[in-house]
Design brief:
Blueprint: H1 13-33, H2 35-54, H3 58-88, H4 94-124
Helix pairs in contact: 2-3, 3-4
Length: 125
């Protein structure tokens, strides 16, 4: 049985158009309300010239820049989790705190992976 939705779901190219519009709305919201997302976007903008300057291998440059994109992706997911939890309740709750801490841990681990990739790329030079 096909799931039903109270809102008609477009198909084909129209669905892609809606997806892009919603993604851009999400980006605008994240940039406006999430300092960590703004910081990651700055890091991404800085990573391209840094990779060109510090890393000789094209593959290592690409890996380094994409690792910063990966951190940004994880940060956006973390921010979405936090925003959802804050919508449910702003009161302290142990499970809410644990969920936010785990999201923060995911960002930290993504940053550690990115740092390792950058270190390896620079060491190859």
């Amino acid at each position: 049985m096909k799931p039903t939705s109270p809102v008609p779901i477009p198909s084909g190219a129209r669905r892609w158009t809606f997806a892009v519009k919603n993604s851009l709305k999400g980006l605008r919201y994240a940039v406006k309300h999430q300092a960590a997302v703004r910081e990651e976007l700055i890091a991404l903008a800085a990573s391209v010239p840094l990779a060109l300057w510090l890393i000789d291998s094209i593959a290592a440059r690409l890996a380094a820049v994409l690792s910063v994109v990966f951190v940004l992706i994880v940060e956006i997911i973390n921010s979405a989790i936090e925003t959802t939890l804050d919508r449910v309740s702003t009161e302290f709750n142990q499970l809410t705190g644990a969920a936010k801490d785990m999201g923060s841990l995911a960002v930290l681990l993504a940053m550690a992976v990115s740092a390792a990739i950058w270190t390896y790329g620079i060491a190859l030079t």
